[in-house]
Specification:
This protein is of the alpha+beta class. The chain has 13 helices and 34 strands. Helices cover 25% and strands 32% of the residues. A hairpin with a 5-residue loop joins strand 17 and strand 18. About 6% of the residues have low confidence.
Length: 750
């Protein structure tokens, strides 16, 4: 009996292995068929081997690049609400000629989408072709920085692999492609929006020809916009079955230039597109679509307002309803029957900001009972890492929740929506999710409210929304959806300011400089500090109490398990404080200081309260090699006390793109250096600088008062946008700030 059982199991394993082998063989055969189809294409542009004479000194040249994207459906049209599987397939092929050792080195480690449908051919100058065996490829981690040239236009859910390509030489051509598909099975589907896409067509290398082709099945609609010199989409006369074909071609394209302060979607050829499925033509939808078989290339203001109105009027989710109820209760408990729009908006805004920053920690209490320390450690260190701001309280939900509170208190408001500045402007909007929502609270002093970040306050407008035009409309008006276009103000560099007060003393050996640094930060300059200097730990207890976010409301477990969790939280909070000191030290080192010891950090204010809107902290540390002995004198790197400043190098003097900065800002320094007893300072006149123009300024002064060298310095970026022709004006004050950091003064015996 045992022998029979053994024989049965052996046969079962054998049959399974045979079936698996056949399955693998079938998959390999299908993959080969696709490779043969792509590489065997009759497209003559992928047979070119030569590059123009004017490009022969480039490191590499993209001979041809093509994106083909197919949108289709599967499933029978049984009637309204029939089940369908909607899908999109993206095929990208690139043919790249390597022309120097730098390109060879760059492509010797080759990245690609982790998909079975991929092929890489190496073509030698004599015409020999070798297909790369990808079985030795390894998957890379999610945090690996994938070079832009390998990235997908559309499919972002796939992981990447990499493989070493041996024996590459200048003159070789890499011809590769990949194909990825995404399917969406949607029961009772009547309408569906595929992911919207914004893509810069700029490439790392010059491109002789770039092609984009869309194959769109019947019942699909396409919205598309070409910007900044990108070609327009043209329909092909031919139709393959139920598919309409659209193409665009871009030729002789310059390489993308690596410059700071660039918004690629505003400066380089860019295409925005989105495809929609509607089962019935003319059916009601929240999407703005055109006609079947005809790409829609613009959205009128009336269409945009109608779209936002339809979404606004949709029944709120249970999540939004719950937040609205909790928020209404909080505002009532906090303010009673208060009618001041500013006070009500501030209370509501602060409550929702608390939900974004705090419950990420609280809600994790029950999640990792065996590892409570690990479960909260990251959240305590980084309020944005686990916060629900993007998924739970996005700009749409924020707007709806606040609007309900204002409506219940009979406070007038209008819905505001605009295109974030780094994407474009209202006139060029074409995508369903291109707009960012907010509110315009009416009254004697009207103001905008947009979804908060970790430390923002009402009135501190998101940098992405400053300087843009916004549509304002009353969603509950019975007199039609009239709208107004209003420009959102740009905050000044005085409002977004950092002030540092530093005292510097030297030890007896004159080898270590002791720094006492007091920092005050306000406005948009606060944002970077909420990822490092300010941690959830700083305001966790206060805001959990204020907003009644207590662990017992989240997890009602046994006392012994709660004790384990609380111990883990306590340990994690202690670790977060320690990690901050390490982070602050590393930041100072990145700023050009050679740190001896980092002694203390004290937070005075986290900048999250209306009464205390500024971040304030002090820290003490020592710096090595700030002063060096030179015979009987000492040389002090006085200019370096303000930290590293941007050096504009010679190859950056020519500007190719307009200048877009996140926000106006200023940085101010008051420095008192104690002069060692028995010494005097010479050469301080070199620390006096003054360059001021319409784009910004750098100003500094130096003087001796008693036994102290007093230095002041201020640097400001006055605008958020400058034409590239104004770059030389910016260089003037940037260069002056850098030169300041190179100034040394001499300490001599008195």
């Amino acid at each position: 009996m045992k022998k029979c059982a053994f024989l049965f199991v052996a046969l079962l394993i054998s049959f399974s292995a045979i079936a698996q082998s056949r399955s693998e063989q079938k998959a390999d055969a299908e993959a080969k068929k696709i490779r043969d189809e792509v590489f065997g294409s009759s497209d003559k542009d992928f047979a070119v081997t030569a590059v123009p004479e004017n490009l022969k000194k480039e490191s590499a040249v993209i001979i041809c690049q093509k994106l083909t994207q197919v949108f289709d459906k599967e499933g029978a049209d049984i009637g309204i609400g029939s089940n369908k599987s909607l899908s999109t397939t993206e095929t990208i092929r690139k043919r790249i000629k390597l022309q120097d050792k730098s390109a060879v080195e760059a492509f010797s480690e080759f990245y690609f989408k982790n998909t079975k449908d991929i092929g890489i051919l190496i073509e030698k100058p004599d015409g020999r072709k070798t297909e790369i065996n990808l079985k030795e490829a390894v998957e890379v981690s999610d945090n690996t920085r994938i070079p832009t040239i390998y990235r997908s236009y559309y499919s972002f859910s796939y992981k990447y692999k990499k493989i070493a390509i041996p024996d590459l030489q200048p003159g070789d051509i890499i011809d590769y492609f990949y194909r990825v598909s995404e399917s969406y099975f949607i029961p009772q589907v009547t309408q569906f929006a595929f992911n919207d896409v914004i893509v810069s067509l700029a490439n790392t290398y010059p491109t002789l020809k770039q092609k984009i082709e869309f194959n769109v099945e019947k019942q699909f609609y396409i919205n598309i916009k070409s910007l900044n010199g990108a070609p327009t989409l043209t329909p092909e006369n031919q139709k393959e079955g139920n598919y309409s074909i659209y193409k665009m071609v871009l030729e002789n394209q310059d390489k993308q230039h690596d410059e700071r302060w660039v918004y690629p979607y505003r400066s380089t050829p860019t295409v925005k597109y989105q495809v929609f499925f509607l089962r019935s033509e003319g059916s009601k939808t929240n999407y703005v679509v055109g006609e079947r078989g005809k790409p829609k290339t613009s959205i009128t203001p009336d269409e945009a307002v109608e779209q936002i109105t339809n979404i606004y009027e949709d029944a709120p989710s249970s999540l939004a309803q719950g937040f609205s109820y909790e928020l209404g209760s909080y505002v009532t408990d906090k303010l009673g029957k208060e009618t001041d729009p500013v006070k009500i908006a501030y209370a509501a805004y602060s409550y929702l900001r608390g939900l974004i920053s705090v419950p990420a920690v609280v809600s994790m209490y029950p999640g990792y009972l065996d590892q409570p320390y690990e479960s909260v450690k990251a959240a305590l260190s980084d309020p944005d890492l686990y916060g629900p701001s993007n998924e739970t309280i996005n700009d749409e939900i924020f707007t709806k929740i606040i609007a309900r509170v204002l409506k219940n208190r009979k406070i007038e408001f209008r819905v505001a929506f605009a295109v974030p500045r780094h994407i474009g402007n209202l006139e060029d909007a074409i995508l369903a999710n291109e707009f960012m929502w907010g509110l315009h609270v009416e009254g004697a002093k009207p103001f905008f409210l947009f979804a908060p970040s970790s430390g923002s306050l009402p009135g501190e407008i998101d940098a992405r929304m400053q300087g843009v035009d916004a549509y304002l409309f009353n969603p509950i008006s019975k007199s039609g959806k009239k709208y107004e276009i209003k420009k959102i103000a740009v905050s000044s560099h005085e409002q977004n300011a950092t002030m540092e007060k530093l005292t510097v003393t030297f030890d007896e050996s004159m080898e270590l400089a002791a720094f006492n640094r007091n920092v005050t930060v306000k406005g948009l300059n606060k944002d970077p500090y909420y990822n490092s200097t300010i941690i959830v730990n700083d305001f966790l207890d206060t805001e959990m109490t204020e907003y009644k976010l207590k662990p017992k409301y989240i997890y009602k477990g046994k006392k012994d398990k709660m004790a384990i969790i609380d111990a883990g939280v306590k340990s994690a909070r202690e670790e977060a404080v320690k990690n901050r000191k390490d982070s602050q030290k590393a930041e100072l080192e990145d700023n050009g200081f050679e740190i001896g010891t980092y002694d203390s950090f004290d937070l005075v204010s986290d900048g999250r309260e209306k009464a205390k809107p500024e971040i304030k902290f002090t820290e003490k540390f020592t710096v090595k090699n700030l002063i060096k002995k030179a015979g009987p004198t000492y040389i002090l790197d006085a200019g370096k006390i303000i930290g590293e400043q941007l050096e504009v190098k010679e190859d950056e003097l020519k500007r190719h793109y307009d200048i877009y900065m996140s926000n106006t800002r200023s940085f101010n320094y008051e420095i008192a250096v104690t002069i060692p007893e028995g010494y005097k300072v010479e050469g301080i006149d070199k620390l006096n600088k003054d360059v001021d123009n319409a784009t910004g300024f750098f100003k500094s002064t130096a003087k001796v008062e008693g036994n102290q060298l007093i230095i002041t310095a201020s640097k400001a970026y006055k605008t958020i946008y400058e034409k590239k022709e104004n770059w030389p004006e910016m260089v003037k004050f940037l260069d002056e700030a850098y030169k300041f950091t190179q100034v040394k003064v001499v300490l001599k015996k008195a």
